[in-house]
Amino acid sequence: MIQFVNVTKIYPNAHVPSLNGINLHIGRGEFVFLVGPSGAGKSTLMKLLYREEVATSGKVIVDGKDIGRLRPSMVPYLRRNLGVIFQDFKLLPERTVFDNVAFALEVTDVPRREILRRVPAALELVGLRHKARSKCLELSGGEQQRVAVARAIVRNPVLVIADEPTGNLDPENSWAIMKLLSDINQMGATVVVATHARTIVDQMKKRVIAIEKGVVVRDEERGTYGYEH
Ligand code: ADP
Question: Which residue, judged by its Cα, is nearest atom 7 of ligand 1?
Answer without folding.
Answer: 43
